[in-house]
Amino acid sequence: MKNITFSADENLIEAARRQAIAEHTTLNEQFRLWLKNYVRREHRAAEAMRVIRELQGSITTGGRKFSRDEMNER
Length: 74
Known about the structure:
The chain has helices at 10-22, 27-56, 68-72.
């Protein structure tokens, strides 16, 4: 694992440490989780866009144009 050094407000760091202790975890573990989710979010967005592009050519309304009211019916 690679070490990273960050700088942040001292009071914020202390508050985060107290919260991590209360949650039975560490700031390092919370950062690792955040980093993993951050990367995953980017991947999921790219995957969703790929699926949208793929479906754009195959989904149709059968040629019918829907009115605004029809589109918003629940």
